[in-house]
Design a protein that fits this description.
The protein is α+β, with helices and mostly antiparallel strands and 195 residues long. It is built from 5 helices and 9 strands. The chain has helices spanning 20-30, 35-42, 46-53, 61-69, 75-80, and strands at 104-109, 118-125, 134-136, 140-148, 150-155, 158-163, 167-171, 174-179, 186-194. The radius of gyration is 26 Å and the shape is elongated. The protein starts with 19 loop residues before the first helix and ends with a strand.
């Protein structure tokens, strides 16, 4: 592998404390690059990438930086990315917590997310059910789509009857109310984001 695995001084210093090979493979896959694509972009051989990922060679920081330029990602980002503690991405219906109030059935998507900035809900409004008057603060945004049934939405002085496929989106200092005035249950998927 010659020059590709040596630093600028011809030294063969390497990063020993971290499994660089496994990390490189994870980062490469995160960026959806094949070994061949990464090798071409970095100006090294396919064998170089393969040997690093198999942990058969330990690259110098200079050589690793050259490989990472092909992604591109900085050395700092490469070593600080967290792969093992990634939060869950997929949520099955039966695993979503039921946070119902009264006859409005709500399931929360992503209950264990720390630092949450969005609340995503699957809601079922039974016949005649209503949220009462709610308040959206200045830094918030809210939107939703009616999946089935009908839902009356009042935002401030404006009101509309939404049917399946209809949606809404509003933000900042608003009083609003949702009410099922149809003849069947209404299903709504909604999201609220806080700045």
């Amino acid at each position: 592998m010659g020059e590709a695995m040596m630093d600028a001084d011809g030294q063969t210093s390497s990063v020993e404390s971290i499994d660089v090979g496994a990390r490189l493979k994870s980062v490469r896959k995160l960026y959806r690059l094949s070994q061949r694509q990464l090798a071409q972009r970095a100006g090294v051989t396919n064998a170089t990438i393969s040997l690093i990922e198999q942990s058969r060679v330990s690259p110098s920081l200079h050589s690793l930086n050259k490989v990472l330029d092909g992604i591109p990602i900085s050395l700092a980002d490469f070593f600080s990315l967290q792969f093992t503690s990634e939060p869950t991405v997929f949520f099955r219906a039966e695993a979503m917590p039921n946070i119902s109030s009264g006859a409005i059935h709500r399931r929360l998507v992503g209950e264990n997310r720390s630092g949450r900035r969005m609340t995503l809900l699957y809601q079922v409004y039974t016949l005649g059910q209503d949220t009462g008057v709610c308040y959206l603060d200045r830094a918030s945004e809210e939107g939703g789509i009616v999946v089935c049934g009908q839902l009356e939405l009042t935002v401030g002085a404006d009101s509309a009857l939404l049917a399946a496929g209809d949606g809404y989106y509003f933000s900042g200092f608003r009083l609003y109310r949702l009410r099922n005035i149809g003849d069947c249950n209404c299903i709504l998927v909604s999201a609220r984001c806080n700045a």
